[in-house]
Amino acid sequence: AHRLWTHRSYKATLPLQVLLLFMFSCASQTSVRLWARNHRLHHKHSDTHADPHNVNRGLFYAHIGWLMMKKHPEALAKGKTIDISDIENDPLLRFHERNILWINSLCCFILPTLAGVWLWGEGWSTAVAWQCSIRYAAAFHCEFTVNSLAHAYGYRPYNSTIPPAESWYVSLTTLGEGFHNYH
């Protein structure tokens, strides 16, 4: 979903788009529109006040604090200038945005819980604890390490003057997203 909708780095068939949107919904982070806008803003103004998760505001802020605090006025202003018309004009993504509550609830919480009960024989309380709490929190924090740790720690073979780094330990939990100095 990241490279398809945020960066438009390839074209995908409708079945692949549906699969990617399902997997995106399993994470239940937000809508593709908001995610892509924030990520495009991050790329355009990386590690400045216009960056939604600017690591220069502190490691905690870059990791999760940006979700708890008001955005910097510069991020709000620059966010309005980011072109997301491609996302807004996509019928599949418009459907997802209109139905995000039930789609994300189904994909992120209900189906994983039912899978735990029906496929692995877990009790309901165990399935809810693991699928709705532990898995969800672990996935969020793995993703957030890209914003924080991969912008603070690691080596910088491409450009040593910018915060994004090549972080093998972040890449282990994010399937390669920790290799951030080239991103």
Automatic annotation (TrEMBL):
The keyword Iron applies. The chain crosses the membrane at residues 14-36, 100-120. It is a multi-pass membrane protein. Its cofactor is Fe(2+). Residues 5-183 form the Fatty acid desaturase domain. One of its GO terms (cellular component) is endoplasmic reticulum membrane. It holds the Pfam family FA_desaturase. GO terms for biological process: unsaturated fatty acid biosynthetic process. Keywords: Fatty acid biosynthesis, Fatty acid metabolism, Iron, Lipid biosynthesis, Lipid metabolism, Membrane, Oxidoreductase, Transmembrane, Transmembrane helix. Belongs to the fatty acid desaturase type 1 family. This is Acyl-CoA desaturase HassPPAE.
